[in-house]
Amino acid sequence: MYLLYTLVFATISFLATQLYCYSFAKCGCTIIKCLSDYLWQSLVPLIFLSFIWILYRFIDKEDEIEAIKKEHVEMELKFLKSQINPHVLFNNLNTIYSYALENPKEVPEMILMLSDNLKHVLYESNSKTISLEKEIRFIDNYMKFQMLRTEGTKQVSYKKNIDSYSHQIAPLLLITIIENAFKHSVLHSDVSIFIKVENGILECVCENDYDKEKVSTTDFRIGLQNLEKRLALIYKDRHIFRIDKGKNFKVYLKLNL
Questions:
Q1: Using only C-alpha atoms, what is the Rg of the chain?
Q2: 175, 108: one domain
Q3: Which of 167, 152, 174, 170 is nearest to 73 (CA)?
Q4: Does residue 115 belong to any structural domain of this protein?
Q5: In this structure, is residue 50 part of a structural domain?
Q6: 23 and 139, same domain (yes or no)
Q7: Which of helix, strand or coil describes residue 92?
Q8: How far apart are CA 161 and CA 19, in angstroms?
Q9: Which residues contact 101 (CB under 8 A, 6 or more apart)?
Q10: Residues 191 and 114 in one domain
Q11: Block means of pLDDT (10 residues each) for the chain, length 257 residues?
Q12: Is the separation of the CB atoms in 77 and 167 below 8 Å?
């Protein structure tokens, strides 16, 4: 391509110089003399036009690359979110099923909570961001299900300290951490969840007992790995995500909303 461009550029320069020499200057000199005296007058506008053309091609290429990157990010986010949704809904359905057999009076309220969560997952979570109020309400419903489901088998502590619900947040971020705490905690153990929002900074801390032999399995890591990818895509340089594997399994997330 560069060789072709060079040949075309040289041909145009030569023809333009000859045209100027014989049609405008009318010097009647030889080809060599003509090129020697007037080539620069052809080269200056050609170089300028070439620069404009190269700059245009560069900008056009950058826009194309940016569009491809944006499309790739959106597709990856949709894929990561699609891996989250089924787990939450199946857990809620299982809880409702067990209560329908053992304590049917609780079922109507649970169905309403599930309906609210379905609306959140299927419709509201399709937006890039949603109100913090809706996301926290979704988590509240999830926690009610979990407290009912784990009653007698786990001690659950769920606390919030939120100064304002007016912020926006990417949907289904916190639920990954919270669900992971329940999914991988052992029987007859403690699960602690704390959410704090102050001056536009959100902190979420989840802590649970865990089986150290299973901590390295793919199933244990995949949810948090997906969360790390989403955070890198959405909150680049605006978050802190930390996992501590000490006596308890502790996940800390800090977001600049």
A1: 32
A2: yes
A3: 170
A4: yes
A5: yes
A6: no
A7: helix
A8: 80
A9: none
A10: yes
A11: 59 61 58 55 64 71 65 57 62 80 82 83 79 93 86 89 93 87 84 94 92 61 79 89 88 95
A12: no
Residue showing tokens 């052809």: 42
pLDDT of residue 248: 86
CATH of the domain at 183: 3.30.565.10
In the 3-class helix/strand/coil scheme, how is the chain assigned residue by residue?
Answer: CHHHHHHHHHHHHHHHHHHHHHHHHCCCCCHHHHHHHHHHHHHHHHHHHHHHHHHHHHHHHHHHHHHHHHHHHHHHHHHHHHHHHHHHHHHHHHHHHHHHHHCHHHHHHHHHHHHHHHHHHHCHHHCCCEEHHHHHHHHHHHHHHHHHHCCCCEEEEEEEEECCCCCEECCCCHHHHHHHHHHCCCCCEEEEEEEEEECCEEEEEEEECCCCCCCCCHHHHHHHHHHHHHHHHHCCCCEEEEEEECCCEEEEEEEEC
Q: 144 with 116, same domain? A: yes
Which residues are 155's β-sheet partners? Answer: 190
Which pTM was predicted?
Answer: 0.66
What's the domain range around 25?
2-59
In a domain, 69, yes or no: no
Total tally of structural domains belonging to the chain:
2
Q: According to the model, what pLDDT value does residue 65 have?
A: 66
DSSP state of 125: G
Name residue, tokens 């809706």: 134
Same domain assignment for residues 49 and 111? no
pLDDT of amino acid 1: 54
Cβ 174 vs Cβ 253: under 8 Å: yes
Residue with tokens 């905690």, as numbered in its chain: 185
Q: Are residues 172 and 215 in the same domain?
A: yes
Res 103: pLDDT:
79
